[in-house]
Design goal:
With about 200 residues, the chain is mainly α. The protein is about 55% helix and about 5% strand.
Length: about 200
C-alpha cells in the first residue's frame, strides 16, 4: 500500500469515528486483518512483501490492538458507571451486550468498516463477524493509544457503543463537582449518546 492509500484510508476512518489521529501507524494497524500483506520499501528494499508498518512487523494484523481495545472498551463503560448510581449487575450486563462480537460486528458493518479493512489475500472479500468485531476493538485500542480514555469515550459515543448508564443524582453531581470522578472524561454531565441495550 502506498503512503497516499494509507493517508486516504485513515482520513476516511477519522471522518467515520469523529476522531483525528495524531500517529498514523495506530489506525493503520487497526485496519490490518491477520495475514494481510503490506508492501513497504522501508524494511528491506522496494517490492519486498512483509507484514510490517515502517519497521514494526505485524504477523497477527490487528489482533494485539483488538485485545487492548476490548479492555479499554470495558474500562470506558466502567468509568462511566462509577460516576452514577447503577448497580454492578447492570454494568456487567451492559459490558456483555456492548462488547459482544455480535454487537461489534453489527456496528462495524453499520459504519461500513469492511471497505477500509486490509484483508488476507487468501480471503480478499471475506470480512467475517469475528474479524469485524476485532477490527472495531482494534480501532478503540488505536484511539486509546493515540488520545487516551477521553477520546475513546467520545468515539464510543459516536459509534453508539457508550450506553446511558449514569443516572444523574445529587450524589453523582457532587462527585463530579468535587473532581472525584472527573479525572479523564471532562464534565460529568455530558450526554452519553445511545440508550442502553
Amino acid at each position: 500500500m502506498s503512503a497516499l492509500r494509507m493517508a486516504s484510508t485513515i482520513s476516511k476512518l477519522s471522518k467515520i469515528i469523529g476522531y483525528k489521529f495524531n500517529y498514523a501507524p495506530y489506525p493503520w494497524e487497526a485496519l490490518q486483518a491477520p495475514g494481510s500483506v503490506l508492501r513497504t520499501g522501508e524494511i528491506s528494499g522496494s517490492g519486498r512483501v512483509r507484514h510490517s508498518i515502517g519497521y514494526e512487523r505485524l504477523p497477527d494484523g490487528n489482533r494485539r490492538l483488538a485485545v487492548l481495545g476490548d479492555t479499554v472498551l470495558r474500562l470506558a463503560i466502567v468509568e462511566d458507571w462509577y460516576r452514577g448510581e447503577e448497580v454492578r449487575e447492570r454494568m456487567h450486563r451492559v459490558i456483555a451486550n456492548v462488547g459482544s462480537n455480535t454487537n461489534l460486528d453489527r456496528i462495524g458493518r453499520e459504519f461500513n468498516f469492511e471497505a477500509l479493512i486490509k484483508t488476507n489475500p487468501s480471503q480478499p472479500e471475506d470480512v467475517s463477524p469475528t474479524l469485524m468485531a476485532g477490527t472495531v476493538e482494534a480501532i478503540i485500542g488505536a484511539v486509546y493509544l493515540d488520545g487516551g480514555i477521553k477520546s475513546v469515550s467520545k468515539v464510543m459515543r459516536n459509534l453508539g457503543l457508550m450506553p446511558k448508564l449514569v443516572r444523574r443524582t445529587k450524589l453523582s453531581k457532587a462527585k463530579a463537582s468535587s473532581g472525584v470522578a472527573n479525572t479523564s472524561y471532562g464534565a460529568a454531565s455530558h450526554d452519553m449518546g445511545a440508550a442502553s441495550p
